[in-house]
Amino acid sequence: MAPQLQAEYAERRKRFLGELTDGIAIVPCAPSFIRNNDVEHEYRQDSDFYYLTGFDEPESVLVLKPGHADGEYILFVRERDPEREVWDGRRAGVDGAVTKFGAEAAYPIAEFDKRLPELLSDVRRLHYRLGQDPDFDRRVVAGVQNVRRRVRTGVVAPSEIVDSAVSLHGMRLRKSSQELSAIERAGAITRSAHLRAMQMARPGRHEFEVEAEILRVFRQSGAERPAYGSIVGSGPNATILHHRRNDRLMQEGDLVLIDAGVELDYYASDVTRTFPVSGRFSAPQRELYELVLQAQLEAIDAVKPGATMVDVHDAAVAVLTDGMVKLGLIEGPCEKAIEEGRYKPYYMHKTSHWLGMDVHDVGNYFVDKRPRPLEPGMVLTVEPGIYLAEDAEVPEAYRGIGIRIEDDIAVTADGHRNLTPNIPKSPDELEALLGARTPEGQPPPREPAPA
Ligand code: GLY
Ligand code: MN
Ligand code: MN
What we know:
The protein folds into two domains: 3-171, Creatinase/prolidase N-terminal domain (Creatine Amidinohydrolase, Chain A, domain 1, 3-Layer(aba) Sandwich); 174-435, Creatinase/methionine aminopeptidase superfamily (Creatine Amidinohydrolase). It is α+β, with helices and mostly antiparallel strands. 36% of the residues lie in helices and 18% in strands. Helix 8 (177-200) runs antiparallel to helix 9 (207-220) and helix 10 runs antiparallel to helix 11. Residues 438-442 have low confidence and may be disordered. The strands form seven sheets. Strands 6-5-4-1-7-8 form a six-stranded mixed β-sheet, with helices on both faces. Glycine binds next to loops.
């Protein structure tokens, strides 16, 4: 692990330890999931666990206990096992947990249940996220019970179990400059993938061919995995929000909606672009596209400290609803249409979500029942759309069209910064780029230089 990352993990643990006072925190790793028989799904570490450790192995538990004599930062990990390592790859082992990952004490994971009662002794408050994994919950509760049974000896058992997410997710919500740059680097790879998708999507190709190319760019860039299942929805598939089959043959006149983002070093990007498969927008497609783009630009403009995600959503809804009324998709007047939510059949999701280690990142959206004011360091997507199914009750020319435009926006001291810049989205820019496509078998044109 790079030294600057070690320092960042250590700094996070220090801040979290500072919030524990006379408590203890237990953060388990992500469980492994069987796909079928003896084959497992790809393992991806739990984001809270990784945020505090940078340790990506399964079967591990992090314990943080302020002032603990044997060490405040304790890792339980798999022991070295040469035979197993031939099958599953190298393990850090107990020594590696200390020397490579900075643990002050480390033990074999097999000793966790046995050592837990001692760790839970004489702490008032246990910071633990109940409800994630019932099996692990039972082990933690058994540890607490064990201490309770011994209170007559003078030992203090935890009297409160609080959700560790309260402080941890508050920390994760505000990104450090290092985290912002990780999201930005993920954004740059995502940009290359979208540009490549724009170059190769064309009538006569399948959605999955575009998906495959996106995944190739992600992986070839050294990134571990996509941040979520990539959506390539052409024609009417673009109106299906979670379209995942990606099996349609793209046709002349289609728009294709591509929602794809890479995960790099445990940070996600989340970008959507929509463009005409054959290089030119039809008049109704362009009308709708310009509307969504205007909504996105105004919603991005609303991102600044003190504003809320509701303000950002309202900015998008105001533009979209006004446009829907003008195009005859819904009845006006605009204010009344907004008040009554008449836009909702065609814009049924919110405009933003937090983005970070998880694509739908952690952090409360409301504080004391009020929308949370944005602060510098927070990152959110801005992704308005319009979805007119083939059987939507709108003028025929608009049916079967789905459009979404999505970028990842960081809140800064004086407004915002786009972490996924220079991925073409103006209709003229898109047509210029798409019009330059070469027939199959010839080399693709060079990528446009960043603006
Ligand atoms: N790609 C998931 C989302 O846009 O929320
Ligand atoms: Mn998305
Ligand atoms: Mn999103």
